[in-house]
Design a protein that fits this description.
Strands 3, 4, 5, 6, 7, 8, 9, 10 and 11 form a 9-stranded mixed sheet that branches. A two-stranded antiparallel ribbon has the order 1-2. A two-stranded antiparallel ribbon has the order 12-15. It has 20 helices and 15 strands.
Length: about 525
C-alpha cells in the first residue's frame, strides 16, 4: 500500500472518529431531555455531589445543570441556552433536532458522502423548512385572542392556573409592550414560597421598610428613587482633624437635613435607596411619615422607575429647588408593605404598564418548578403575540418535512443526503412525543405523514390521550411560530458546526508555557 493511500485512509478514519465522538456526545445530551417533551413527558432528577436534588421537566434547566465535559456537548448546551435567552422556550426541541441532524449525517458520511455536500443540503433544507413554518403561521389578534390561553396551557405543561396568570399579565401590559424587542414578560415572574399565586398591575420590591415606626404604605404615593446613599457628604479623617473641617462637616449635615425637609414639603412619601441611610435621615423621615426602603436591588429600582415614571438620581440632586425635584418624582396609586413576605408592592404606576406574576407554592422545591413552568408559559405567550402560532404536537414539523420531499427531488447528487438529515430531524419531535405517550413512534409518524398527505391538512398529529390522528388546532394544541423557527435554526446551526469538525486536537495550555518561561 502506498504512503499516499495510507495517509488518505488515516485522515478519513480520524475524521470519522471525530464525528462519531461528537455525535455520541450530542446524543447523550439529547437523551437527558427527550423524555420530558410532550403532554406525557416525565421529570428528570438532577443530583449534585452534595446530594442536593432538583426534579424538573424543564429542558433548559436540565441542560444548564447537567454535567457535560465533552466540547460538542457544551456547544449544544450553549446554543440551547442562547435560544432560551432569546425566545424563552423550545430548548428541548432544538436539542433533539440538532442531535438527529448529526446522527443522520454520521450515518451517510460513514457510507462515503462528502461532508461539504452534506452541509450544502442541510443549509438548503433548513431554509426551505423555515420558510414552510413561517408560511403556515397564523397571526393572533393580540392579548385578547382566545387561542392565547391554549398557547399558555401547552407551554405551561397543562397547568391551567399558570396559563391564566400568563394571559392576564399579557393583557395588563398590552400588545405594544409585548411587541417591544427589549421587553421580556418573563422578567415579571416572582416565585415565592407560601405566597398566593396572582397577577397585578405593579411591581414588587424585595425589601421591607427600614423600621417598624415608618408607615406601612402610602396612597397615593409620590416616589423618589435614590441611586446612592441617603446620608450627608462625608469628609476624610484628615479634614475632620481641623477646626475648618469640623465646621464644614456641621454645615454639610445642616444642608442635608434641609434637603430632606424640602423633600417632605414636596409631598414625597416613599423613598427607595440603593445603599444605606444615615441615622439622621432615618429619624427625620420616620417622624415625617415617609416609607423608606434601603439597599434595594438595581433591578427593582429600574422596574419601579419605569412603572412610576420616576428617574433615579444621586444625592446631590436633593439640593435642587422643588420644581427640579418634581421632575424626577414618580407616582403610583398605592405603595404598601407585605410584612409576611418582607416586600413592598408598588401598584398602579403612572409610567409604563408593568405586571407582576406571583407564583406561589407550599415548598421551595415546588416553587422552583412552578417558576420554570411559568417562565415557559409567559415566554410562549409573548412569542405568540409577536409572531403568531403553528399547529403543535409535532404537526408543523411534519408538514415542513413533507415540504422537503419536493425540495429533495430538485436537488442533484449527494447534496440530497443533507436534505434527508433535516427531514429526519423534523420527524423527531413527533416521534419523541408519541413515544413518551406510550405509542410506537415509527408507526405513528408514518400515520401522520399519510394523513396530512391525504387530506392536505397540516394541523394533523396524534392525540396523546387516545393515540388517534387529530386536528391539533381543534384540540387547542398550538405553539408559537417564533419558538419553532428559532429551534430549527439553532438545530441546523449546531448540526452544521459539528459536521464541519474534521478532527479533535487537544489544545496547549498557554499558562503552562508561560510558567515554564518564568521559571527559566
Amino acid at each position: 500500500m502506498s504512503e499516499a493511500r495510507k495517509s488518505t485512509e488515516t485522515g478519513g478514519s480520524e475524521r470519522l472518529a471525530a464525528l462519531v465522538s461528537n455525535a455520541a456526545a450530542l446524543r447523550a445530551v439529547a437523551s437527558a431531555v427527550e423524555g420530558t417533551i410532550g403532554p406525557k413527558g416525565l421529570d428528570t432528577m438532577l443530583v449534585d455531589r452534595f446530594g442536593d436534588v432538583v426534579v424538573t421537566n424543564d429542558g433548559c434547566t436540565i441542560l444548564e445543570r447537567m454535567e457535560a465535559t465533552h466540547p460538542a456537548a457544551r456547544m449544544l448546551i450553549n446554543v440551547a441556552r442562547a435560544q432560551q435567552e432569546e425566545i424563552g422556550d423550545g430548548t428541548t426541541t432544538a436539542t433533539i433536532m440538532a442531535s438527529a441532524i448529526v446522527q443522520a449525517g454520521l450515518d451517510v458520511v460513514a457510507e462515503g458522502v462528502p461532508v461539504p455536500r452534506l452541509i450544502e443540503g442541510v443549509r438548503l433544507a433548513a431554509k426551505a423548512a423555515l420558510d414552510a413554518l413561517e408560511e403556515s403561521s397564523r397571526p393572533l389578534r393580540g392579548p385578547d385572542d382566545p387561542l392565547l390561553l391554549r398557547v399558555a396551557h401547552t407551554a405551561g405543561r397543562g397547568h391551567e392556573d399558570i396559563a391564566m396568570l400568563a394571559v392576564e399579565a399579557a393583557r395588563l401590559v398590552g400588545k405594544a409592550s409585548l411587541l417591544d424587542p427589549a421587553f421580556r414578560l418573563r422578567d415579571a415572574i416572582v416565585a415565592q414560597e407560601g405566597a398566593k399565586s396572582e397577577v397585578f398591575m405593579g411591581v414588587i420590591v424585595k425589601r421591607g421598610r427600614q423600621n417598624r415606626h415608618m408607615p406601612g404604605g402610602a396612597a397615593p404615593a409620590r416616589i423618589l428613587i435614590l441611586d446612592d446613599a441617603l446620608e450627608p457628604e462625608k469628609l476624610d479623617a484628615e479634614a475632620l482633624a481641623t477646626e475648618l473641617g469640623i465646621e464644614r462637616h456641621l454645615a454639610l449635615q445642616d444642608e442635608f437635613e434641609r434637603n430632606l425637609r424640602r423633600l417632605v414639603a414636596c409631598g414625597v412619601n416613599v423613598i427607595l435607596v440603593d445603599r444605606g441611610t444615615s441615622d439622621i435621615a432615618e429619624d427625620i423621615l420616620t417622624d415625617a411619615g415617609v416609607l423608606v426602603a434601603t439597599r434595594v436591588s438595581w433591578r427593582d429600582l429600574l422596574r419601579v422607575a419605569e412603572h412610576t415614571g420616576a428617574r433615579p438620581v444621586k444625592r446631590a440632586w436633593l439640593a435642587r429647588p422643588p420644581d427640579e425635584i418634581e421632575k424626577v418624582v414618580g407616582a403610583a396609586d398605592r405603595v404598601y408593605e407585605d410584612e409576611k413576605l418582607s416586600e413592598i408592592r408598588v401598584v398602579g404606576g403612572r409610567g409604563k404598564p408593568m405586571a407582576t406574576i406571583v407564583v406561589g407554592a407550599a415548598t421551595s422545591d415546588v416553587v422552583g418548578e412552578r417558576e420554570r413552568i411559568a417562565h415557559d408559559a409567559v415566554s410562549a405567550v409573548q412569542a405568540a403575540v409577536a409572531g403568531g402560532v403553528v399547529p403543535g404536537g409535532g404537526a408543523a414539523e411534519i408538514a415542513a418535512a413533507r415540504r422537503l420531499l419536493a425540495v429533495r427531488q430538485e436537488v442533484k447528487g449527494m447534496t440530497a443526503y443533507g436534505v434527508d438529515c433535516v427531514m429526519a430531524a423534523l420527524r423527531r419531535p413527533l416521534a419523541q412525543i408519541v413515544q413518551n405517550a406510550g405509542y410506537n413512534p415509527l408507526e405513528k409518524v408514518e400515520e401522520v405523514i399519510a394523513a396530512q398527505g391525504d387530506t392536505g391538512d397540516d394541523s394533523l398529529a396524534v392525540n396523546c390521550d387516545t393515540g388517534e390522528i387529530a386536528d391539533m388546532v381543534a384540540l387547542g394544541v398550538v405553539d408559537p411560530t417564533l419558538v419553532k423557527v428559532y429551534a430549527l435554526r439553532a438545530a441546523a446551526e449546531v448540526g452544521e458546526a459539528v459536521l464541519r469538525i474534521d478532527r479533535i486536537v487537544k489544545k496547549r495550555e498557554d499558562n503552562v508555557g508561560e510558567s515554564k518561561e518564568a521559571d527559566t
